[in-house]
Design goal:
The complex is a heterotrimer. By secondary structure, chain A is mostly helical. Chain A has 14 helices and no strands. The radius of gyration of chain B is 26 Å and the shape is globular. In chain B, helix 10 runs antiparallel to helix 12 and helix 16 packs antiparallel against helix 17. Chain B contains 17 helices and 24 strands. By secondary structure, chain C is mainly alpha-helical. Chain C has a 3-stranded antiparallel sheet, with no helix packed on it. At the A-B interface, helix 2, helix 3, helix 5, helix 7 and helix 8 of A face helix 1, helix 4, helix 7, helix 14 and strand 19 of B.
Chain lengths: 333, 517, 325
Amino acid sequence: MKKYLVKRILLIVPTLLGITFITYLMIRLAPGDYTKLKMGMEGALKSGSISREILEQEKKLYGLDKPIVVGYVDWLAKSARLDFGTSRKDGRPVSKRIAEALPITLTLNIISMIIIYIISIPMGVVSAVKKESAFDRGSSLVLFILYSLPTFWVGLLLLLYLGSGEYLNLFPLGGFRSDWAAEAGILTRILDVGWHLVLPVVTLTYGGFAFLSRYTRANMLEVINQQYIMTARAKGLAEKKVIFVHAFRNSLIPLITLMATLLPGLLGGSVIVESIFSVPGMGMLAFEAILSRDIPVIMAIETIAALLTLAGILVADLAYALADPRIRLEAKI
Amino acid sequence: MLGVMLLCGCSGIAPELDPYTLRIHMGAEPGTLNPITATDSYAHSINLKIYETLVDRDYDTLDVKPMLAERWEISPDHLKFRFYLKKGIVWSDGAEFTADDVVYSYDRIMDPKVSSAQLKVYYIDIQSCKKIDRYTVEFTYSRPYYLALIFCGGMPIVPKHIFNNGTDFNTHKNNRFPIGTGPFRFERWDTGKNIILVRNERYRGAKPEIRRVVYKIISEGSVALQMLKKGEIDLMGVRDIEWVRQTNSKKFTDNFYKLKYYMPSFSYIGWNSQRPFFKDRRVRLAMTHLINRKEILGKLLFGLGEIVTGPFYIFGKANDPGIRPWPYDPERAKQLLTEAGWVDHDGDGILDKDGKKFSFTFTISSGSKFAERLVSILKEDFGKVGIEMDINRYEWAVYLDKIQSKNFDATSLGWSDPDFQDDPYQIWHSSQIKGGSNYIGFSNREADRIIEAARTEFNEAKRNRMYHRFHRILHDEQPYTFMYTSPALAVVSKRFTNVKVHTRGMNYLEWKVRKPQ
Amino acid sequence: MRRGYWARVWREFRKNRLAFAGLVFVVMLFVVAIFAPLLANSRPYVYADKGRVYFPIFFNYPELKDADLRRDSFKGFKIFPPVAYSYSEYDLNSIVIPPGAKHLLGTDEQGRDLTARMIHGSRVSIFIGFIAVAIYVAIGIVVGSIAGYYGGWIDMVISRLIEIIMCFPTFFLILTILALVGPNLVNVMVVIGLTGWPGIARIVRGEFMKLREMDFVVASRAIGARDARIIMRHILPNSLAPVLVSATFGIASTILIESSLSFLGFGVQPPTPSWGDILSQSRDFMDFAWWLTLIPGFAIFLTITAYNLVGEGLQDAIDPKAISK
């Protein structure tokens, strides 16, 4: 077990190198660079009588004159010392920009995630147990309808009907906290943030139920049909016990795998939700950075996302083994 | 139920709105508020209230008038500009403003280590910027230019005592904590949320009645409009569809002014004249005849705008109002195309010439809904006369790359000239084809001559006559199909009075606050 | 033997009426998508005038190029498709009009017929979902089963590869690659296909790791069955259930990804319609033009539901225990 862990953790290093290099390569190869954009944005393309010299100076300033490999090694050397450089947009350290955006996104997404899991897993289990029942059919219909509603549409409608005051005035029109809340007490501040979070969380969650509950249902059905469950039934165990102790535990495995794959998405946040609700989170940060070719920001976000994902995968693999003793770790590195 | 009550109780804590606070919508967050390195228009409009320049321009007449300089002298050869600074002006932290600040700012703009390429361009022709004494500076130009006074007098000026402390200029912490001499002073920046200014009590001039300005960052325009209606925003620009459909209720017009005004800007379709199709003037003219500008303006833009025939501000003197737009005339277009040799020889429904089909690509940037709708219509209309058109839409960075490397056939964009400079050099002089804004490759000897001569013509009337001739050449050559100039559409809360529109737009420094009854 | 197996699956599948209905719907969508130009077109199938017969949809007649044959002034014999509008034909005099006799499902912001756009839009939505997912499910199954079955160093290498691909936020990857190769339908499809497989691969790998220790697999190995046979016959069918759910949702989410890309301006090139694009264009009019939102939204819902019913039906049918019951 220990040997396995050490090996896996060591393997993260080459994987991370591969990921960051490919990312760097892609940004550098993508058409358009920060310098050109900066010139171009001045009154739409007013790059004017830019002399080559000025353009070259500017490129040098941002290290765009160096070959890709050299640029990558530079970045690597710096980030090895945990220096992610400065954002080209506002000249602030990248770490600071991420430190501002990350907590917002994590709060939003973790709450959404928990709600999705809490609601959809029981629904999936019940659907599987009462397969083909009215509940199974009805819930899947409702969840699919929710799944098909486009986020931007729901988000904007929620704001219009519940926030604008033209119909109801229950929630704020976006943002993460009120202006006045900075001076208020801690409880008021938490309440205020919670109040702001209601609509974005609803928008982020409503579409997520369908997949997870159907996924749980599929896994449960598969397990229910397995021999040992049948055996358990045959032995006369109470149905509830069969379902929750034996069947559910075994259908956990794919759910764990799923968690790991959901991690990068969690971090990336949702550009659309963040933009509709004016929440300055990671999604907007990453999206803007990509569009403006803000290399230090993109690289930092990618590195953090990769690290978290790798950790998630590792945890999933370990949990896998714990949930199912038949999987022997040492053999499967 | 309890939850709802709790929430309402929560909102009840919010303090009353201070009537002297103005809240303005911003669609995107600026990166920095350093006028030397900032590039976006939001930073520009905020800096306008914080920082000042040597000279100002009148909001209505556009005449040059004193700001930080009380007077100036121009040498007879138009090369030397000597500014005498007002004495006793202080930065908002109390330090005195002197000639050193001006020279320092010029040096930073031209410093290769400073990320200011977009500004450097305007100051290449300045040979030197010298301090004569504590309150006098002199700029020397290498060649005369009629806009020289506006350029050197409008140069952004930052405080030397703040920035000259040994840290990197591009990432200086005061880039996000500006200190200026203007009527407002920076207070706070909540990233992704607000930028807040307060009245500068040290300001020498008349103090504005508004005491506090909050710039609210809301990226989704339709949400911002709802906030405005709810009374959380006082001033914002709206889109044409919002202007026409969502701001006409009695409740709305009771509470808000709707202001529509024109600034110098125009949209156009640029034909890459280095491509075989559009090398021929007759083909470009035919394309213009194929575009039903009137109908598109009326239906897609709800009639908000005017058709333009050239690059100049339509209410300015450089524009020749005698030039009428080419009419929509597909028959004439077909005739011109036939004259140019584009005929459907092989009967496949597509025009061809020398074995080459008339099939081109229209490149647009994502983000412009109007461009998208426009090109869908053009594709259909061009198809009817046998011109095949593909549409390529790219994200802005890629789009710029394609345009700057001239890798396109036709595109649609707009130019704006917020400082009323009129000089067509950047866009139309043939020297600007390589690496400049003349990316469609317009080259005309007479036009070049006029542009050059006009730059050293200091008599405005004469210069405008030259520009009328230039306007005529563009009209005949149709390097662009000039489309529209669209108005700025703004809505402002009626909490304020004296809200006026000037040539240069609105100026909230002069607004009054309506006294509560 | 093999044939018998799939025939049995089909028999099982057909018993499930809902799943079968889903399949019928999906097939219908494919038919609509394939024959879209014949269903919605501004030209007639046949036009006969002055002793000449034209087939304007199928052949190009230069003499008819400009003619709008729908006008009454063209008196000859003519048969039009059910929807006599093309998807790109605009009419600035009938912008955003609600569903009615002239335009069955109304028009959009350029006065284009929504029925025609929905019919042609099905091509993008169906193909993008189906082909992209087919690509990634295929890759995912192959890669995942190799890794899960063999384990050891093969699994190690493949797992690292999976991790590398998984670590890229899909959306970012799509944006960057589209910037490199240019955005068009095929590229969007291929990019989603080439980046979506790690999820499937992980699931398959996990199932294989679990199943290969199972009694029946161990038993087949003991009697000397070949790897390929064990994989195909014993392990794969048993590990398909979660893959099918993933894949059917994959199709749906690809359709939604396309709509998000459209919302952000990275979707199909105009004037090509896609359901997602119609939806995202509708946001300017959402306060009054309900048809521009609800119709494409409903279409997406039906498609997703149909694919899911098919997926669940298949899953039940494949399950060997369900069959033996």
